Amino acid sequence: MKIKQAPYTATRNACKMCTPLGAAMVFHGIEGTIPLLHGSQGCSTYMRRYMISHFKEPVDIASSNFSEETAIFGGNDNLKLAVENVIKQYSPKMIGIATTCLSETIGDDVPMVLDQIQNQSDARTLLTRLVHVSTPSYTGTHVDGFHNAVNHGQDGIYHTG
User: How many CA atoms lie within 13 A of 103 on its CB side?
Assistant: First the structure.
């Protein structure tokens, strides 16, 4: 009797391919910090859903909400607005900004935008520490994003209160 085997389908755990997820987990674990993903809303929704199911508690992850237009012309204005909205809504001590594949691929200059925010800041904004970590998913896994946020996040601090 010949046993027929089902065809093998190669699968990959999507979480292992998501560098910003690792950075978001680091930022989620720092008191008074809101993770902000510079990219599409789908990325932050996916990570929020994953972290909610893992931690069994609500998780906030902000997004700069890229659209088709933003993907072509850049997301600098979206990032500025996202930082402003997070500060108004949550008054965090720190915002951990992780870039996604889309913002990395189009080459958004996040350090430049954060310098502009610092130079145009009001008193409320200056009380919030902004940390940027480059986390394109095509360069590693969630472990790499976690490592980058822990070890290189200090390099990305743009201003403190």
Answer: 31
Query: In this structure, what is the dihedral angle of CA atoms 124, 60, 38, 137, given to the nearest 10 degrees?
Result: 150
Q: What is the pLDDT of residues 4-49, one digit of tens each?
A: 776 766 666 666 678 999 999 999 999 999 999 999 988 899 889 9
Q: Which long-range contacts (CB under 8 A, 24 or more apart) does 147-155 make?
A: 147/22, 148/19, 148/22, 148/23, 149/22, 149/23, 149/26, 149/27, 149/96, 149/98, 150/26, 153/23, 153/26, 153/96
CA distance 101 to 18: 9
Buried b (16+ CB within 10 A) or exposed e, 40-51: beebbebbbebb
pTM of the predicted protein model: 0.85
User: Where do the DSSP E strands lie in the chain?
Assistant: 33-38, 62-63, 94-99, 129-133
Nearest to 142 by CA among 66, 51, 58, 59: 51
Task: State how far the Cα of 66 lies from the Cα of 68, in Å rounded to an integer.
Answer: 7
Residue type, 158: Y
